[in-house]
From TrEMBL:
Keywords: FAD, Flavoprotein, Oxidoreductase
Gene3D superfamilies per the UniProt record, alphabetical: 3.30.465.10, FAD-linked oxidases, C-terminal domain, Uridine Diphospho-n-acetylenolpyruvylglucosamine Reductase, domain 2
PANTHER family: CYTOKININ DEHYDROGENASE 5, GULONOLACTONE OXIDASE
Protein name in the entry: cytokinin dehydrogenase
InterPro entries: Cytok_DH_C_sf, Cytokinin_DH_FAD/cytokin-bd, FAD-bd_PCMH, FAD-bd_PCMH-like_sf, FAD-bd_PCMH_sub1, FAD-bd_PCMH_sub2, FAD-linked_Oxase-like_C, FAD-linked_Oxidoreductases_BP
EC number: 1.5.99.12
Domain FAD-binding PCMH-type: 40-219
Cofactors required: FAD
Pfam family of the protein (one): Cytokin-bind
Length: 513
């Protein structure tokens, strides 16, 4: 087989006895070259559709032993922004979806033990569907469920439940991992502990997650979903912080989900995260806009079961009474738990139908120490952004004590920190403020502002191009991160699309970059 760049003997890989499929089909290769961000393009030589950890181990072992140089990148659903799951001159292991007759293992629910074992490429929507058959569900989510278990556990996995249950990486008991040497290791709090903590939030650097054991709880079947508005930022954040401080209270005395978003002028009202501001909830939002031009929306939800439906009104009323939102701005809806969790998919379908999903996404996700969030508001929401947003801006606080400091993920040095997610889409509409260049510049301006104002942000779903920037990102976690890399992926084969380490094959040093 002739390939561009390095010659890899695919026939040799095929002789390894793979049960899945190794593909050089141009459409497979094209898919694996791209991601949701549509900002960068990889050049994989082939795509493996594995059906077991052994399939992956065989390919990684071959790559590890190869003198010619071959990288291996796991790709979940390819929902990264900056090419994190891509590779050039290597093999992409397509963990989600499958091809051909054989399939990876289906989720196995251990109902009594309250956990589920899932394949690393399983999408969270399918984890949910499998566990609901037993009346159970995972505790901690992402806002969008068409993401893979391995992909979110390599980052953190956060949503409005994180204040209460921690991120998804705080809700995992055990993993099977194929390391960069091709070993298949089980790891947990008690076994291969260092690998376990390194892999969680580890940006795919230490191994490919093939199985995760995820903690479950009894699933509610309904959700009361509420949005209230604020014109005053400090009232908004005080209420958010109050609500997340209730995490240790009994479940009937706290919300199950706390998020929020920023409404810069009226842009967001028509945007994909705002389906609650529907004709059933007719309120003239424009009448609420303060002179600053910025409104804040607190988004909260309370789970319930039909059997507890009679107390939900009372519980919600009690919690809302303590908040200081604009009293005429309460938007409420009751919906099935599964529909609540799957809400962003509904928005996806709408955007797809308008051709607005497959566009470049220069997203910027920041963790901001709570002591600096007011300054960030002044400088960014009321400053740099102007009155154009091009997409939702999420903002919600989390409790650091729900994050295990031994994981690889980095968060600010304060007990409370906020996620600010600027989830913007670039459009070729001719309007300058919607262009990719404009949004990229604005992202750089925001980061520069934080730097100059001494706001010590940490990037979530980070992306850097030099190792020095990565060292600064990891701070005092860098030495450990590096040590773990040398132990579990010494030739830097895995997840090279993150651009943290350069593969160390001798022949690669002669490669044109
Ligand atoms: P990919 O993009 O395929 O991979 C991401 C990284 O993980 C790559 O480095 C890859 O090599 C590595 N990787 C993938 N699979 C494995 C594996 N099995 N083992 C080891 N490494 C692996 N994130 C949140 O936390 N909360 C949200 O609410 C949220 N909402 C989102 C909504 C949308 C519409 C999108 C596009 C993204 C959202 N994200 C959210 C971000 C998302 O969690 C990350 O982009 C995540 O990486 C996507 O998962 P994926 O399966 O597509 O991973």
């Amino acid at each position: 087989m002739v390939t561009v760049g390095l010659a890899i003997d695919f026939m040799e890989i095929l002789r390894l006895g793979i049960d899945g499929q190794l593909s050089v089909d141009p459409s497979d290769v094209e898919t694996a070259s791209l991601d949701f961000g549509l900002l960068t393009r990889g050049q994989p030589l082939a795509v493996l559709h594995p059906v077991s950890a052994q399939d992956i181990a065989r390919v990684v072992k071959a790559a590890y032993g190869s003198n010619q140089g071959m990288t291996v990148s796991a790709r979940g659903h390819g929902h990264s922004i900056n090419g994190q799951a891509q590779t050039t001159n290597g093999v992409v292991i397509q963990m989600s979806g499958w091809k051909g007759g054989n399939k990876p293992p289906r989720p196995h629910v251990w109902a009594e033990e309250r956990y589920v074992d899932v394949w690393g490429g399983e999408l969270w929507i399918d984890v949910l569907k499998s566990t609901l058959e037993y009346g159970l569900a995972p505790k901690s989510w992402t806002d969008y469920l068409y993401l893979s278990v391995g992909g979110t556990l390599s980052n953190a996995g956060i949503s409005g439940q994180a204040f209460n249950h921690g991120p998804q990486i705080s809700n995992v008991y055990e993993l099977d991992v194929v390391t960069g040497k091709g070993e298949v290791l089980t790891c947990s709090e008690d076994e291969n502990t260092e690998l376990f903590h390194a892999v969680l939030g580890g940006l795919g650097q230490f191994g490919i997650i093939t199985r995760a054991r995820i903690s479950l709880e009894p699933a509610p079947n309904m959700v009361r979903w509420i949005r209230v508005l604020y014109s005053n930022f400090s009232a908004f954040t005080s209420d958010q912080e109050h609500l997340i401080s209730l995490h240790a209270e009994p479940s009937n005395q706290k919300f199950d989900y706390v998020e929020g978003f920023v409404i810069v002028a009226e842009g967001l009202i028509n945007n994909w995260r705002s389906s609650l501001f529907s004709p059933q909830n007719p309120v003239k939002i424009s009448t609420l806009f303060p002179t600053s031009g910025v409104l804040y929306c607190l988004e909260i939800a309370k789970n319930y079961h039909e059997s507890t439906a009679q107390t939900i009104d009372q519980e919600v009323e009690f919690l809302l009474k303590k908040l200081n939102f604009i009293s005429t701005s309460v938007f409420t809806t009751d919906l099935l738990y599964v529909d609540f969790l799957d809400r962003v998919h509904m928005a996806e379908m709408k955007l797809r139908s308008k051709g607005l999903w497959e566009v470049p996404h220069p997203w910027l996700n920041l963790f901001i120490p709570s002591s600096k969030i007011a300054e960030f508001d002044k400088g960014v929401f009321k400053g740099i952004l102007g009155n154009k947003t091009s997409g939702p801006i999420l903002i919600y606080p989390m409790n650091k004590n729900k994050w295990d400091h031994r994981s690889s993920v980095v968060t600010p040095d304060e007990g409370l920190f906020y996620l600010v997610a600027l989830l913007r889409s670039a459009l070729d509409s001719g309007e300058e403020t919607q262009s990719l260049e404009y949004l990229n510049n604005q992202n750089r301006q925001i980061l520069r502002y934080c730097d100059e104002a001494g706001i010590k942000v940490k990037r979530y779903l980070p992306h850097y191009t030099t190792q020095q920037e990565w060292m600064d990102h990891f701070g005092n976690k860098w030495d450990r991160f590096y040590e773990m890399k040398m132990e579990f992926d010494p030739r830097h084969i895995l997840a090279s699309g993150q651009r943290i380490f350069t593969p160390t094959f001798p022949s690669l040093s002669n490669m044109p970059s």
